[in-house]
Amino acid sequence: MRCRAKICGITSVADALMVSAAGVDAIGLVFYPKSKRHVDIAQATEICRAVPPFVTTVGLFLDAQPDFVRTVLASVPLDVLQFHGSESPEYCRQFPRPYMKAVGMKGLAESGGFTAYADRYPDAQGFLVDSHAPGAAGGTGETFDWTQVPQDYPKPIILAGGLTPENVAEAIRLSRVYAVDVSSGVESAPGVKAPALVQAFMAGMGAA
Ligand SMILES: O=C(O)c1ccccc1NCC(=O)[C@H](O)[C@H](O)COP(=O)(O)O
């Protein structure tokens, strides 16, 4: 099965169209106010309405108030939610959308490991493994040991954290994941995606 690609931290219609034309399967919109890639409801609505069919729109939240998530969902046509903080299983399942749970892999082995963490979220659509410590914010731009990515978990695994055009093929070869997720590795500035880096990233995936 081919490895899918999500590009996170899209902040403009132009970038959404550019990465869609490059062949990505999903775009991520960051609704975390402290992020340099944060979008507001008006921007996000415009972006989601502009993306072509069959490109999945993912809303990233980090320990947001439930009412804020509901307010976003009332206006922005998101397909999937991504919870990147310390959200509980009960929190994640309360919204009328499928969700992915981000898992901070740093130090996770000492606190029970991936399977124990993921099993708490039986209704998650998949798990995004990122390089941050549990409880810390993600989007660090750092990699982690890809041999630690679970190989036999019965849900899709999305690999994130410090991926670049140069390392994505090796990351896919070592981890055999369902999808990869990249943000800073294809940027010219925070929140601004560089067409040449996006194309090189997609080509790098093809070399895996
Ligand atoms: O992008 C952010 O600013 C951000 C802030 C807080 C939590 C998560 C954030 N981003 C997550 C992502 O963009 C991706 O899911 C992933 O972590 C990849 O990021 P990168 O390492 O920059 O490729």
- The overall average pLDDT, rounded, is 94
* Biggest sheet details: 8 strands, parallel, barrel
- Globally, the shape reads globular
Count of helical regions? 7
Strand content: 15-25%
Q: Runs with pLDDT <50, length 5+?
A: none
| Whole-number tally of structural domains | 1
Q: Spatial order of the strands in the main sheet?
A: 1-2-3-4-5-6-7-8
SSE run: EHEHEHEHEHEEHEEEH
CATH superfamily: Aldolase class I
Please render the helix and strand layout as text.
Blueprint: E1 4-7, H1 13-21, E2 26-30, H2 41-50, E3 56-61, H3 66-75, E4 80-83, H4 89-92, E5 99-104, H5 113-118, E6 126-130, E7 157-160, H6 168-175, E8 179-182, E9 187-189, E10 192-193, H7 195-206
Parallel strand pairs: 1-2, 1-8, 2-3, 3-4, 4-5, 5-6, 6-7, 7-8
Antiparallel strand pairs: 9-10
This protein binds the ligand O=C(O)c1ccccc1NCC(=O)[C@H](O)[C@H](O)COP(=O)(O)O.
The site of ligand LARABZUK has 26 residues, from strand 6 and strand 8.
Catalytic activity: N-(5-phospho-beta-D-ribosyl)anthranilate = 1-(2-carboxyphenylamino)-1-deoxy-D-ribulose 5-phosphate
GO molecular function: phosphoribosylanthranilate isomerase activity
InterPro entries: Aldolase_TIM (IPR013785), PRAI_dom (IPR001240), RibuloseP-bd_barrel (IPR011060), TrpF_fam (IPR044643)
What does this structure look like?
The protein has a single domain (about 5-205), classed as Alpha-Beta Barrel (TIM Barrel), CATH 3.20.20. It is built from seven helices and ten strands. The chain has helices at about 15-20, 40-50, 65-75, 90, 115-120, 170-175, 195-205, and strands at about 5, 25-30, 55-60, 80-85, 100-105, 125-130, 155-160, 180, 185-190, 190-195. The protein is globular, with a radius of gyration of 16 Å. About 45% of the residues are buried. The mean pLDDT is about 95. The structure holds ligand LARABZUK. Ligand LARABZUK binds near residues 62, 130 and 183. Keywords: Amino-acid biosynthesis, Aromatic amino acid biosynthesis, Isomerase, Tryptophan biosynthesis. Pathway: Amino-acid biosynthesis; L-tryptophan biosynthesis; L-tryptophan from chorismate: step 3/5.
